[in-house]
Structure formats: structure tokens, C-alpha cells
């Protein structure tokens, strides 16, 4: 499968290039960066440390997408929306690992998915998506009268969005298990005299510092007992491997908006 990495000059982009080279059935057919980036013109393979691949990083996606079968995208919300429209025009698979999208961004991506398969997830890790399925099941089994749910996450100091896309993914899983809307029941900050915790809400705590790739825990706190479900990422490559797996899964799929739950065959509770 001929894949294009957008944001190929960044840490995640380089990891994606390496993952493509390591994955049977995938090949790098293009590498894109924004206009003015210092890595333009460089060989994407050499930059990623896998040797020359003959694929130069460029800033014009149109001719690159025209020859590709899929795009892998861990960029920024505005860029991902633009790439989704271009992927829809080209009728190719678009894997989106970008976080921090607004509701308007999500609507535009959903519109693009009417014309091409889009696989979007707040986390491409296979382990995190299995964790989300477990969180949903636990939230369904342990009701709000007996157990409170808190989502705790920590990332490196350079991360720009909070709560993280993974924390929100886990919060959504908990909300599905409770059959509630996360937007109306999420508590994303606490400061000052907040009063007692409102029954049935889902709390979020955000930590930032150092070089931590990602740590997420979902705590179900009851009277006299706490259940903690945790995932720790120790290598950014795991997200890249999951994204390439998603791209290969999406090859030949009908247009639509998919998630890693679909890729892994994890049915909602």
C-alpha cells in the first residue's frame, strides 16, 4: 500500500516513516511538510534514520496524494481538516491521529468521510484502545451511585492540548458505559471552593512535564476500594505501528468514519 506521511519532518512523522519501512505490505510513496519547513528537500528515509528511500519531503500534497493509496496524519487540527478534504477528492484512505480538534473540525472531517475511508482516533495504540473497551465495560458494571470515575493523564512539557486526545477517548468510553453524554458530564478543571463532587460526573486531571510520552489511568473510586486501569507508553513507535495497521485495514473499505475499535474488531458494549 502506497502511503504518504504528512508532517514527515517531525518526531512523529519520522517514526511513521520508520514504521512503514518495517511493515510488510506498506511502502512510503510521499512525504509532506508545511511551506518553509527546514526539512523540505531532504530524503525522508535519511531524516528518519533508515537510509535513503528516494522520497524527498515537499510542500505540495496534490501530486503526491494523486499517486498514493493512503495518508497518515499526526499534524494539527487545521491541517488535518485540509488533508481530509484532499483525501476525499483523491478517494484514498486517511488515518488521523491528530488531537485537539474542535466540533467544527470534527464535522468537516465527518463530511469528508462520505467520500473516502477515514480512520480517526485520539490514540492509535492497540493497548490504549483495548483499555478503552475495558473502561466502558467497567463503567457499565459499576454504577454512579457506587463508583466515581476520574481520568488522569500525564504527557511531556511540549504537548499543547489538554485534556489529551487519549484522556478524552477514555472519558468517552466511560460515558458510553454509563449511557451518558460526556460533554454534559465532564469536569475538566477544579479550583477553589468547588463543593462536593457531583454524582455521575467524569473528572479529568492533567499533568505536564519532562519527556513523558504518555501515561493514562482511569480510576473507579468506591467506598473503601479503588479500581485503577492504566496504560503507559514507553516508545512513540507504538502509535506509528498502530496507525500503519489502521491504514492497511482501511485499504479497500467503503467511505466512512472509522475508529481503532473498528480496526481491532472491538464491539461496543
Q: Quick recap of the structure?
A:
With 269 residues, this protein is an alpha/beta fold.
Helix and strand topology:
Blueprint: E1 2-6, H1 11-22, E2 27-32, H2 44-48, E3 57-58, H3 61-66, E4 70-73, H4 77-90, E5 93-96, H5 103-112, E6 117-120, H6 126-141, E7 147-155, H7 165-178, H8 182-185, E8 186-187, E9 202-208, E10 214-222, E11 225-233, H9 237-250, E12 256-258, H10 260-264
Parallel strand pairs: 1-2, 1-4, 2-3, 4-5, 5-6, 6-12, 7-9, 8-9
Antiparallel strand pairs: 7-10, 10-11
Helix pairs in contact: 1-9, 4-5, 6-7
Structure overview:
- With 269 residues, this protein is of the alpha/beta class.
- 37% of the residues lie in helices and 24% in strands.
- It contains ten helices and twelve strands.
- The chain has helices spanning 11-22, 44-48, 61-66, 77-90, 103-112, 126-141, 165-178, 182-185, 237-250, 260-264; strands at residues 2-6, 27-32, 57-58, 70-73, 93-96, 117-120, 147-155, 186-187, 202-208, 214-222, 225-233, 256-258.
- The strands form two sheets. A seven-stranded parallel β-sheet has the order 3-2-1-4-5-6-12, sandwiched between helices. A five-stranded mixed β-sheet has the order 8-9-7-10-11.
- A hairpin with a 2-residue loop joins strand 10 (214-222) and strand 11 (225-233).
- Helix 1 packs across helix 9 (237-250) and helix 4 (77-90) packs parallel to helix 5.
- The longest helix is centred in the middle third of the chain and has 16 residues, at 126-141.
- The protein is elongated, with a radius of gyration of 19 Å.
- The mean pLDDT is 95.
Amino acid at each position: 500500500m502506497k502511503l504518504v506521511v504528512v508532517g514527515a519532518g517531525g518526531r512523529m512523522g519520522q517514526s511513521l516513516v520508520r514504521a512503514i519501512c518495517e511493515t510488510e505490505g506498506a511502502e512510503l510513496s510521499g512525504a509532506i511538510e508545511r511551506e518553509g519547513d527546514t526539512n523540505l528537500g531532504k530524503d525522508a528515509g535519511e531524516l528518519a534514520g533508515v537510509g535513503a528511500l528516494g522520497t524527498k519531503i515537499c510542500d505540495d500534497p496534490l501530486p503526491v496524494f494523486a499517486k498514493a493509496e493512503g495518508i497518515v496524519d499526526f499534524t494539527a487540527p487545521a491541517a488535518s481538516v485540509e488533508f481530509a478534504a484532499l483525501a476525499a477528492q483523491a478517494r484514498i484512505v486517511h488515518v488521523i491521529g491528530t488531537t485537539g480538534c474542535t466540533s467544527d473540525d470534527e464535522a468537516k472531517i465527518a463530511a469528508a468521510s462520505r467520500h473516502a475511508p477515514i480512520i480517526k482516533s485520539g490514540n492509535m495504540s492497540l493497548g490504549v484502545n483495548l483499555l478503552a473497551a475495558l473502561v466502558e465495560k467497567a463503567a457499565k458494571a459499576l454504577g454512579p451511585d457506587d463508583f466515581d470515575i476520574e481520568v488522569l493523564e500525564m504527557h511531556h512539557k511540549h504537548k499543547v492540548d489538554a485534556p489529551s486526545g487519549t484522556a478524552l477517548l477514555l472519558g468517552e468510553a466511560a460515558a458510553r458505559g454509563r449511557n451518558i453524554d460526556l460533554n454534559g458530564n465532564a469536569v475538566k478543571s477544579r479550583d477553589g471552593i468547588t463543593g462536593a463532587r457531583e454524582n455521575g460526573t467524569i473528572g479529568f486531571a492533567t499533568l505536564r512535564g519532562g519527556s513523558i510520552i504518555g501515561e493514562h489511568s482511569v480510576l473507579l473510586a468506591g467506598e473503601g476500594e479503588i479500581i485503577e486501569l492504566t496504560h503507559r507508553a514507553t516508545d512513540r513507535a507504538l502509535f506509528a505501528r498502530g496507525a500503519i495497521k489502521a491504514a492497511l485495514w482501511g485499504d479497500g473499505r467503503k467511505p466512512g468514519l472509522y475508529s481503532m475499535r473498528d480496526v481491532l474488531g472491538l464491539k461496543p458494549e
